[in-house]
Amino acid sequence: MRLLARRWQALTTEIVELDAVLDDLTAELAPTLRELPSIGTQTAAILLLAAGDNPDRLEHERSFAALCGTSPIDASSGRQRRHRLNRGGDRNANAALYIIVVSRLRWHEPTRAYMQRRLAEGRTKKEIIRCLKRYVARQVHRAILHDLPNISHARPPALAA
């Protein structure tokens, strides 16, 4: 039992050290992204991973939204105009956007006001969260493009074969 406790302590220490390294890396490489409300170390890292090794390939914010699975899919029928959730894309990035939106709904006053306004218009909470995830994906895309020189500079040179 003592061996297990020591192993747990060692792993906990390693996690804390790696979190500090990740915090330093995301703060250095993507300061604009980290300045956005409700985006912390973990969510910034997940979104940077979703952008991949070549984030400049995502020329338009709609391509980043599709990559994250937040692009709307038309589900209209007759006179009813609706969009449904996109089940595709990078699910980790989608989950990170969801965490950001839920955090903003709790602490970010403009987001809370948006939620109240859309609820008064008759939208469901799921629809509003879908719209907010798309909005956050747009903000994240702009921030990644702004931080692109930092990210590009940090890339290791290609290995010669």
TrEMBL record:
GO terms for biological process: DNA transposition. It holds the Pfam family Transposase_20. Residues 32-116 form the Transposase IS116/IS110/IS902 C-terminal domain. InterPro entries: Transpos_IS110 (IPR047650), Transposase_20 (IPR003346). The lineage of its organism: unclassified sequences, metagenomes, ecological metagenomes. This is Unannotated protein. GO terms for molecular function: DNA binding; transposase activity. PANTHER family: TRANSPOSASE FOR INSERTION SEQUENCE ELEMENT IS1111A, TRANSPOSASE FOR INSERTION SEQUENCE ELEMENT IS1547.
